[in-house]
Amino acid sequence: MSEYYGPPTAYTSPSILSLAEGLQATLGISYPTSLTNGQYLEYGSERVYPEIPIYYPPISVASLPREVIDNILKFDIIWQCLPTLKACALVCSAWLPLVRELLFETLVVTDGHPTNNFKAFDLLLKKSPGVCYCIRALSLRPDRLLESRTGKTLNSTTLREMLAYLPRLTALEINGLRLDGGEGNLSFLPPHSCLEELKITNMHSWMNSGKDMLDIFSVFSHVQTLRLERLGQLKGAIIFEDHGACFTPDMISSIKIPRSLTTSCIYMASISQPHFYLEVLKQAHSLDTLEAVTVECEDAQLLPGITSDLGSFLTDSGTNVLELNISLVNCWRYRQPIYIETDCARIYGELVPAIQYMPSLHMFTLSLLAQHNPEVTARPTLDVWSIMISMLSALPPTTQIINLVLEVEKYDETFQDRHLPWLSPHFNWTRLQVALNRFPYLEAVRFISSAVAGAIALNNSEWDLEGRKITYYLPELAERGILRFGMI
C-alpha cells in the first residue's frame, strides 16, 4: 500500500482545484482546471484538506476477493480518513466505485465568493457524472463569509441546473443565498426531485405571499421533512416533524393546505403572532391527532398570545394531543419567582381547559426554574407548584406518564432545602398525592433535576435525599413502583 501523510495540524485555505489535483489520478474523475483559489469543500461533518503529498504507484487489477475488500472498507479507519481512502484505491482498482461513493455521499460547499464557487462546482458536476451519482446530501452555505449587505447573488437558473445533475439527491440544505430571479417562487428547484429532506434558511424576503407557501406544500408533498427557518423577521418557529415548516407571520394572511398534509408535532417558542401559524394548522384537514405540543417561551411577553391562541385552536379543532410539554425555564425574568407564578397561572387558565377533555393525552411534562438566590424566599416558588398541582388535577384520567422537571441553578457547594420545593417542609404533599391518585392508568411519575448552563448539578447525596423524601411523602405511589428519579 502506498505511503501517505495524515492531515496537517495547521491548515491554509484549501481549494477545489487542490482537491481536483489530488483526486483526479486517484479516482479517475475529471475536474475543471480553472477554479478560484480560496475555495473548499467539506465532507460530512469534517472538512477535507486535500493538500497531502501522495505517492502514486501504478494501478493494478484487483487480486483480492470482493468480499474481502468489502470487509476491509467497513473499518472506520478506512472510510473516515481521506488519505487512507486514496491509498487503498491506488492499490486495488475494484475499490474505486466504493471509495468514490464514500467520499462524495455528503458534500458541504461554502465560500466567501458564492458566484465563483458555485460556478466551479457546477463545472465539476458537468464533467464528472460519476460524482453526481454518488451525491446523496448537499449543503450550500455561502453565509459563513457572505454578508447580506454585499448584495452578492446566485442565478436561480444556475442553481436549478446544478441540482438537476444530482439524480440521487435526497437531502438538500440552502443557507443564506440571495437568488437572482428566484425569489418568491420555486424556479430554482428541479422537477421530479427525489428529495426526502429540504431545509431553507436565512433567505430573507423569499416568500412574498401565502401563495408561495401553498406552492411549497404542493410541490413537496412527498418530502418527509421540510424546514423553512428565518425567512424574514421570524423570532420563533413551529416545527412539524413530518410535513412541516416554519412560517413568517407577517407574510401569511390566508392559506389553504392540501389534504395530504400530515403533522405530528408542534413546537412553539417565542412566536410573535401565533394565530397565523395556528390558522395554517386549522386548515390541515387531516390533523386529527398531534403527537406532541411543546410550549417553551424565551420572551415572556409573547406567552399570552401563545397560550390563548393554542388553547383556542385545540378547543375549536377537536384535535387530540398525545403529549403536552410546558417549559418555563429559558426566560431571564423567570429568575424572579413571581413571574413564573403569573405565567404558570396563565397556562393553567388558558391552555389546560383545552387539554382536560382530550381522552388521548398520554404524557404531561412541566419544567420550572428553581431559585438559588438566598434572598428569595421559598414561598413564591411553592405557590408556583401549587398551581402545578392544580394542573395535574385538571388533566384527563387517561394520563399515563407525568414528568416534573426542575432546572436547578447552583453555583456553590452549599445547598439549602428551600431551593427545591419538594425538599421544603411547606410543600403540600397530601394535595399532590390526591392529585396523582386520580390517574388509574399511571405508569410513571418522574421527578427530574436538571442543571442549567453554567450550573453545578446535584451531587449524589443531595439526589439521594431528594428521592428518599419523595418516597416517604408518596407511600402509595412508592408501593405501586411508579416513582422515578433522574438527572439530566
Automatic annotation (TrEMBL):
Origin superkingdom: Eukaryota
InterPro entries, per the entry: LRR_dom_sf
Identification of the protein by name: F-box domain-containing protein
Organism from which the protein derives: Hermanssonia centrifuga
